[in-house]
Design goal:
The complex is a heterodimer of chains A (about 375) and B (about 475).
Chain A lengths: L1 H29 L7 E2 L4 E2 L8 H5 L2 H12 L4 H14 L4 E2 L2 E3 L5 E3 L7 H14 L4 E7 L2 H4 L13 H11 L4 E4 L1 H7 L15 H15 L8 E10 L2 H6 L7 E8 L6 E5 L4 E3 L24 E6 L6 E6 L7 H4 L5 E5 L8 H8 L3 E7 H4 L4 H7 L1
Parallel strand pairs in A: 6-7, 6-15, 13-14, 13-15
Antiparallel strand pairs in A: 1-2, 3-4, 4-5, 8-9, 10-11, 10-12, 12-14
Helix pairs in contact in A: 5-7, 5-14, 8-9
Chain B lengths: L5 H17 L5 H16 L3 H19 L6 H36 L14 H16 L9 H9 L1 H4 L7 H9 L5 H33 L8 H32 L17 H7 L2 H12 L9 H18 L4 H27 L2 H20 L3 H11 L10 H20 L3 H12 L3 H23 L10
Helix pairs in contact in B: 2-6, 3-4, 3-5, 4-5, 6-8, 9-10, 9-19, 10-15, 10-16, 10-17, 12-13, 13-14, 14-15, 15-16, 18-19
Classes of the chains: A alpha/beta (about 375), B mainly alpha (about 475).
């Protein structure tokens, strides 16, 4: 018996010592694989080998950069991260890096309001008072955390977004026409109105919201006006990136095109000095963030001139939810100006005055709106 | 560089281990000194000169202390001078800001000052050097003549940043006769991996939980949430610190040097006294040998004993950090120890051991709340909530959520703080057929999972420009 234990002990010791040493050496040798410069999963530039200077060693910049370099370039970095998220889920975690993992692998961005409804309402009311001649509409899209709350993990401690939205609605002036996106999205909540791995609504969600908008704006839309095309089924959205969890097979991405092809338009990205004859930038479907297929992502200022016979000029003040809804608006305005307050630094009143704006649409999703301070800064300037 | 960083594990360690085995054995001490210098310079490229200066000074003073021509008085002066230098170093680098802030508050003064950054491991370093000086002074040891042995004692990198606080007599034997057998190496690997896993799998998870809970306004907490937070911190600090000690001991063993044990399952202690024999052993024995016993210990009558206990525990508290809540934390234990000795002793003997364990654990947990909060007043209001005074509710959706998503972590944590896991693994390894392979594979798996945790902690996804 003693001999057996002794033999087992020796085997064990050899295994531990050599095993550990082999793993260390293997990892050390693997560290010589060619460096990656960019991580799609994390959407950032990875650290490459830092330059050594005695000064950078003394102020510890070299050490910090070298430490980052070693972990950024670690062999199969993404797989290790994936392994950890799997482990966390196995042990019962339902929230990774602030992203909730709901039923059916639905990912939810947390609703963390930091700007009060009163604050937002006063800003928008002020805007409406300043421009009584304009037709102002407000479309606030709820997020899946509210519409799809049954799919949240059990007893997830989330704030009730609906009360925030209703409070804001109650505080707005009569002159601001409210587009009730909440009800229409709730009616269609069994359909794929949001992506599973991204924090945006799908084109379908935007399509329904557009119907609600059309009712308020007095636009008549027929079912056969639009047709829907599948353009990608390999979309892994921002929430996959943020949580590090890639459990679900990818999302499908659709775009809508009008059936009447007679409408012509030109899209101008003012700051970038670029023009395009499409609101869809199909090259972006090859990128990691495929949602940027809509209007080529976010821009401070976009102008769209159309051949529409309706002599109206719409100003859209918006966040990224608008990008997939704006295509629906093209036939009903002969000019649309799109401003994203988070990037726009010019004088808004001048823009309104000089361009002969007739209609204004505020188009936000609740997560962004209740965290956004750039809107009030732009309007109060 | 931390012992649980990628740079250490996958660059520094493999190169060092390889060199350590390849070079002739009489160069090993020099290699370890060089490695230790590089290790410390990596974290403190400037303060390393301070450490070197202090080291040379200590070496000279202590050699002088052993000079037979000195009178007793001269020796005493020398010793006091050397200790004072290190106490001053510690006070200046660690408590300067705290002392001035306290003065400002008490005397309503306006002083502006600049605080120097605190060097890594300065508290551990100073205590170790003081123990050496005191031991030479009291003739427990002779001043070391061999500069290399002395250097390695002072600088040996695994213990440099978070202890254990080694005594010279123990470490000298290890340095002169390192155990470079396979058995020692494999034992080191075992310790290192379990320490790493404790730190990055358990401690960091509990740490995240505590960070989340402590960020909430205290008045918003429900009773249950407050308890979950306190338990999370209690487990975090144990797995963090004992994990780090395990890593240090493990690396020491791989290099043939056995460091002293620092933790011995403190959360199964049967009394506060027992707890402090199991928690941060090298610190409590330091205070015992160099403060408590010189003050007269417990053999000087009740009044002096109470004084001694309060001094020792006030100092223990402030050693942990420059803030009033650390002092309160230390004194809390001092008072508990006195109460245990003079009041509760009789009742405790009658209690079932399990009850004693639970009560001790609770007392320690309340202690950690004092320790963890940013200020004393905050800690007291947190404890108030835990006791149900002024809380909004006993439980809420949030506490249900926390329990639901963390219950397994807590169970694992509570099991891992007892000796059960180790005993089961050893039984399995030695008595089950192929058990040794299974246990080896288990350690490999733990190591891989730990790597995943380390890599994952550096994960930072940048949202797209559109959100």
């Amino acid at each position: 018996m003693k001999r057996v234990i002794r033999r087992k002990k020796i085997t064990y010791e050899m295994m531990m010592s050599y095993g550990f040493f082999i793993v260390l050496t293997a990892a050390f040798l693997f560290s010589f694989h060619p460096d990656r410069s960019f991580s799609d999963a994390e959407n950032r530039v990875l650290r490459t080998f830092p330059q050594f200077h005695i000064e950078s060693f003394i102020d510890r910049r070299f050490q910090e950069q070298f430490t980052e370099y070693k972990s950024d370039q670690f062999f199969m970095r993404d797989s290790w991260i994936h392994m950890k998220s799997r482990l966390d889920i196995m042990l019962g975690k339902k929230r990774l890096n602030g992203v909730y993992l709901g039923k059916g692998d639905q990912l939810f961005e947390d609703f963390a309001p930091s700007v009060s409804g009163e604050n937002l309402a006063s800003v928008i009311n002020h805007f409406a008072d300043t421009y009584p001649q304009l037709d102002i509409m407000f479309l606030l899209a709820p997020n899946p955390i509210s519409i799809w709350q049954e799919r949240l993990p059990m007893s997830a401690p989330v704030r009730d977004q609906k009360t925030y939205i209703e409070e804001l609605h109650g505080l707005l002036n009569e002159t601001v026409k409210w587009v009730d996106a909440y009800s229409v999205l709730e009616q269609h909540k069994e359909e794929d109105i949001y992506y599973h791995s991204d924090h945006h609504w799908t084109s379908l969600g935007a399509y329904y919201a557009f119907h609600a908008y059309a009712d308020v704006a007095g636009i008549e839309v027929k079912e056969e006006d639009w047709k829907c095309l599948l353009v990608s089924d390999t979309f892994h959205g921002t929430l996959t990136g943020k949580s590090g969890y890639t459990g679900r097979s990818s999302d499908e991405l659709y775009v809508y095109v009008p059936t009447d092809t007679s409408l012509q338009y030109i899209v101008q990205y003012i700051d970038e000095q670029e023009k395009s004859t499409s609101v869809y930038k199909t090259e972006n479907l090859n990128k990691h963030d495929q949602y940027s297929v809509f209007l080529n992502g976010n821009h401070p200022l976009i102008e769209i001139d159309t051949t529409s016979s309706v002599d109206k000029h719409l100003l859209v003040i918006k966040d990224s939810y608008a990008n997939s809804m704006i295509p629906f608006l093209l036939p009903y305005y002969n000019r649309i100006t799109v401003v994203d307050p988070r990037y726009y630094n010019e004088d808004l009143s001048l823009l309104i005055k000089e361009n002969g704006i007739t209609d204004v649409l505020f188009l936000y999703n609740a997560n962004t709106l209740f965290q956004d301070t750039s809107l009030s800064m732009m309007i109060n300037e | 560089m931390a012992l649980n960083s990628i740079v250490f594990i996958f660059t520094f360690l493999p190169i060092l281990l390889l060199l350590h085995r390849l070079i002739p054995s009489h160069f090993r001490t020099s290699l370890l000194i060089g490695a230790s210098l590089l290790f410390y310079a990596w974290g403190e490229p400037i303060y390393i000169f301070l450490i070197l200066l202090s080291m040379a000074y200590t070496y000279l003073i202590c050699t002088w202390l052993d000079d037979p021509d000195l009178t007793q008085r001269q020796r005493k002066n020398l010793c006091i001078q050397a200790i004072a230098v290190h106490v001053f170093l510690l006070v200046y680098l660690k408590y300067y800001g705290f002392i001035l802030d306290s003065f400002k508050e008490i005397f309503q003064l306006h002083i502006s000052y600049r605080v120097l950054p605190q060097p890594l491991g300065i508290s551990f370093y100073c205590f170790m050097v003081i123990s050496y000086i005191a031991d030479v002074y009291t003739h427990k040891i002779e001043a070391e003549k061999d500069k290399k042995v002395f250097c390695l004692y002072v600088l040996f990198f695994p213990k440099m940043i978070m202890g254990p606080i080694e005594r010279f007599a123990d470490m000298k034997k290890q340095i002169l006769h390192p155990d470079v057998s396979i058995a020692s190496f494999s034992c080191g690997v075992e310790r290192f991996i379990s320490g790493l896993a404790k730190k990055v799998i358990l401690a960091d998870s509990f740490g995240l939980l505590w960070t989340e809970i402590s960020a909430i306004e205290i008045t918003e907490l429900s009773v249950l949430t407050a308890w979950i937070g306190a338990l999370a911190y209690t487990l975090q600090i144990y797995f963090d610190f004992s994990g780090y000690s395990d890593m240090a001991i493990g690396i020491g063993k791989m290099l043939g040097i056995t460091l002293s044990e620092n933790f011995h399952y403190p959360y199964i202690a049967q009394s506060i006294r027992d707890f402090w024999r199991r928690w941060h052993i090298s610190l409590s024995s330091w205070f015992r040998d160099y403060v408590y016993i010189p003050l007269g210990g417990s053999h000087t009558g009740i009044k002096k004993h109470i004084r001694n206990i309060l001094i020792v525990w006030g100092l223990t508290g402030i050693w942990h950090g420059a803030n009033w809540n650390f002092i309160a934390w230390g004194l809390y234990f001092g008072i508990l120890l006195l109460a245990e000795k003079y009041i509760f002793y009789r009742y405790m003997k009658k209690c079932h051991p399990l009850w004693r364990q639970c009560l001790t654990f609770l007392a320690v947990m309340f202690g950690w709340v004092l320790f963890a909060c940013d200020s004393l007043s905050q800690a007291l209001s947190y404890i108030q909530i835990m006791l149900g005074f002024g809380s909004r509710a006993f439980s809420d959706v949030y506490s249900a959520w926390l329990i639901q998503t963390n219950i397994l972590f807590f169970i694992i944590g509570l099991v891992c703080m007892t000796p059960i896991v180790k005993q089961v693994i050893e039984k399995f390894r030695d008595h089950i057929r192929y058990g040794e392979y299974a246990v080896g594979a288990l350690y490999l798996l733990l190591f891989l999972v730990s790597i995943a945790c380390i890599i994952s902690s550096t994960y930072q996804s940048f949202l797209y420009t559109q959100f």
